[in-house]
Design a protein that fits this description.
One of its GO terms (biological process) is green leaf volatile biosynthetic process. The protein is of the alpha+beta class and 289 residues long. Helix content is 36%, strand content 20%.
DNA sequence: AAAATACACAACCGCATTATA
DNA sequence: TTATAATGCGGTTGTGTATTT
């Protein structure tokens, strides 16, 4: 025994509404209102439609002051915030967005915001980092797997090092404590590269200056510390103290924003870590889908 | 240029809740 | 008070259009 249908499906029209039908429904409702009963409305308005269909058409489309599409960033933020608080209670979320219907918010979520939400969730998750360690020259090297703000796979490493017993991890958070290697020689070229004697745990270090344009609007001239070791390159912006071991900087400096699909920040494709990280990336991609 | 695929949004379905007789 | 109808809601599907192959 199924549920009793709300109307005779063989006698009502289904699918998209024609402009004529819209006019009939709109005119009827503006003149008479719902009369407190959607089920009997189609008959009274002379529409071959199910009452529920009429209600939906009116509430989601024909009703005055309804906005369609063009969600603003502020609206997106409200939806994202509320979704995180109360989940998929679309009518409640829509009630906080004047002119928006629950159906519209739900559609917008399913087509656009869900990805944004998942990405930020994954970013939060990935920010914690994937860690594994091994010993290189008596330094503990922690390998962190994360996403940079472009959503690109990024790989960085931090040291639990013998260099300073009071500092357990060298990262962007405490890079001001990073013991700089001794400057041994200076070379000049068009990128103003200064070569520095390598530190015991680094194969080589360079300081260089270059003007970098972010997204065509945000330009910054930074002095970077570039260090290389056997897992790849590391860049630290000496003015902001932000470091990144990433081909992200490589790509900006060398190719603008022309990222390669499978770039992994800071990882030498010939290194033993590369396949390992690709595997991890595959797992994350599956998790994202 | 045609077919396949992806995307956006409208509409439907059935269950839960609320209103009414 | 309770049975039934109407309404509200959210998951899901359908449809037209845009983009890619």
């Amino acid at each position: 025994m199924g549920r009793a249908p709300c109307c005779d499906k063989t006698k009502v029209k289904r699918g998209p509404w024609s402009p004529e039908e819209d006019n009939i429904l709109k005119n009827y409702l503006e003149k008479n209102g719902t009369g407190g009963n959607w089920i009997s409305l189609p008959q009274k308005a002379d529409l071959r439609r199910c009452g529920k269909s009429c209600r939906l058409r009116w509430l989601n489309y024909l009703r005055p002051d309804i906005k369609h599409g063009g969600f603003t960033e502020e609206e997106d933020n409200i939806i994202l915030t509320l979704y995180r608080q109360i989940g998929s209670r679309w009518s409640v979320i829509a009630a906080n967005l004047p002119g928006r219907t629950d159906n519209d918010v739900k559609n917008h979520w399913n087509t656009k915001l869900k990805k944004k939400h998942l990405a930020s969730q994954n970013n939060n998750f990935l920010d914690i980092g994937y860690n594994f360690t091994n010993n290189i020259n008596s330094s503990d090297l922690n390998h962190n797997y994360s996403r940079n703000y472009h959503g690109k796979l990024d790989y960085s490493n931090t040291f639990t090092s013998h260099m300073d017993p009071n500092v357990t991890n060298y990262s962007s958070k405490n890079c001001d404590q990073f013991p700089f290697p001794t400057l041994m020689e200076i070379q000049e070229n068009d990128a103003t590269i200064q070569s520095i004697q390598e530190d015991s745990s680094l194969d080589s270090c360079q300081i260089f200056q270059k003007c970098v344009t972010f997204e065509e609007t945000n330009t910054c001239a930074s002095t970077f510390l570039k260090s290389t070791n056997n897992t790849g390159c590391n860049y630290m912006d000496l003015s902001s103290g932000i470091s990144s071991s990433s081909s992200y900087y490589d790509d900006i400096l060398e190719n603008g924003f022309d990222f390669q699909e499978n770039d992994i920040g800071g990882v030498d494709p010939n290194s033993s870590y590369y396949n390992n990280i690709l595997e991890i990336d595959q797992l994350f991609k599956e998790f994202e889908n």
